[in-house]
Write a structure and sequence with these properties.
Elements lengths: L19 E3 L5 E3 L9 H7 L5 E5 L4 E4 L14 H7 L9 E9 L8 E7 L2
């Protein structure tokens, strides 16, 4: 079976273009020989994390957004990032945390807060 007959719609996230195909074992792979990470799509899709992961330093923070926020450029207007940036300091001791939104009242959507769960 040729690579063309197993082609997959979409573009390689490494910038190779429309070079994706379905490899053995069901893995989506880039067929460009010079691709620096032919398994990039498979690795991205295998990521089980569905929440934000935040790394807090003493005075700075970094947010790893869930893949769903890449749809429609939602991560460019991330509510969690705005929330943390507006705080006078970091809300927890330095470390890595999973951020989850906790609704307080189902009758008032959006009324709640972010909770922080340690990530080892």
């Amino acid at each position: 079976m040729s690579t063309e007959s197993r082609s997959v719609a979409g573009r390689c996230p490494m910038g190779c273009g429309e070079t994706l195909f379905l490899a053995s074992g069901g893995c989506i792979t880039c067929c460009r020989l010079q691709c620096p990470r032919p398994d990039a799509v498979t690795v991205l899709l295998a990521d089980a994390e569905t929440e934000h992961v935040v790394i807090f330093g003493e005075t700075e923070f970094t947010v790893r957004h869930p893949l769903r926020e890449h749809l429609d450029d939602e991560l460019m207007d991330c509510e969690l990032h705005k929330h943390i940036a507006a705080m006078p300091g970091i809300p927890v001791k330095p470390g890595t945390y999973r951020a989850r939104w906790a609704d307080y009242d189902a009758a008032t959507p959006g009324y709640g807060t972010w909770t922080w769960e340690d990530v080892p």
